[in-house]
Design a protein that fits this description.
heterodimer; B: 11 helices; 8 strands
Chain lengths: 68, 256
């Protein structure tokens, strides 16, 4: 999950583009949660197999891989 | 526009033969030719294709006479259930590749435009593919959306079995340890267990590495446990958005 968040940010993938693709995979809700997380709106969730990283963990990962 | 080679092993001829043998009986090619009214040469060609696909097996009887019989393959089992429940329908006539491709998407209510875009065909093409089902009241339209009627669920399960089989058959020719994680009629996300299968797919033009292993392309390199995932959609460009979807763990919980 953390790595997917990194790629979204690194490639600046537009939410609507990713939502359109994710719908075919049944991942629309997951992607929606991920963008809310990236927007700082939600605390990490642990429901339905979604395990978003803690803010601290994710910031450390971004720094490690040089993702702004 | 997608070409026919992406899909499907079960065209009308193959399905007609499966139909003729669905009771499980053994038959000689000559008997199958008589039952189906196909020429002997055509029958031999179709039987070989079905045997190669694992849907029939061939043996020799006394006097070295060749006989064929359907297998217990999931595609055959799903077709048996479909024909048992809807024996009055001429399925080989009704199930064109186009109809099967469109039906794949009717597991939930969808707009015609959405299906047309996904299959890269016209809306008229979708309507035409669905017309045999409309005429038999197998669709349940809801506003601008269509889905298969609940009563025709065996058709959806048969088509899903055919599509998965089609992708597995293609992938396992190169990589015997393949499992399908997700697919639709023109796209497949697969995993393999063996290193040599990874090498085979890596060398094949129509397969691309995806998932976490593909992040390297974007300057993000991670430790990869096990073999990478591979993506089949030879007429499309693999986008970062697709790669994200191929990386999320819940992908593995869907379909095969």
């Amino acid at each position: 999950m953390s790595y997917s968040l990194l790629l979204i940010e690194a490639e600046a993938i537009a939410q609507q583009e990713l939502m359109d693709v994710a719908a075919w995979y049944g991942l629309a809700d997951t992607i929606s949660d991920m963008y809310r997380y990236l927007a700082g709106e939600d605390e990490p969730l642990a429901a339905d197999g979604i395990h978003l990283p803690s803010r601290t963990e994710y910031e450390a990962l971004k720094e490690q891989y040089g993702v702004a | 526009m997608y070409s026919e080679y992406c899909f499907i092993v079960l065209l009308k001829g193959e399905l007609t033969i499966v139909d003729a043998l669905i009771t499980g009986r053994e038959a000689t090619p000559e008997e199958v030719a008589t039952d189906t009214e196909y020429t002997r040469n055509h029958i031999y060609h179709l039987l070989d294709e079905l045997i190669d696909a694992g849907l029939l097996h061939g043996t020799r009887r006394h006097h070295n006479q060749r006989v064929v019989q359907i297998t217990e393959h999931p595609v055959i089992e799903q077709y048996r259930m479909l024909t048992a429940e809807f024996s009055h329908v001429d399925w080989p006539e009704l199930l064109t590749p186009a109809t099967m491709r469109v039906c794949w998407y009717l597991d939930e209510p969808r707009r015609i435009t959405s299906i047309a875009d996904r299959l890269e065909i016209s809306r008229q093409g979708v309507h035409k593919a669905l017309s045999p089902l409309k005429n038999r009241a197998m669709l349940s339209p809801s506003g601008p959306e269509y889905a298969l009627s609940d009563s025709i669920q065996p058709l959806l399960e048969f088509i899903q079995a055919v599509v998965v089989h089609d992708h597995l058959n293609r992938a396992r020719n190169l990589a015997p340890s393949t499992t399908v994680e997700w697919c639709d009629p023109h796209r497949a996300l697969i995993r393999v267990q063996e290193r040599q299968d990874t090498e085979s797919l890596y060398a094949a033009e129509e397969w691309e590495i995806t998932g976490l292993a593909r992040f390297e392309q974007f300057g993000l390199q991670f430790f990869l446990a096990g073999e990478p995932a591979f993506w089949y959609a030879p007429e499309e460009t693999l986008t970062p958005a697709e790669i994200v979807c191929h990386t999320l763990p819940s992908t593995a919980d869907r379909d095969e």
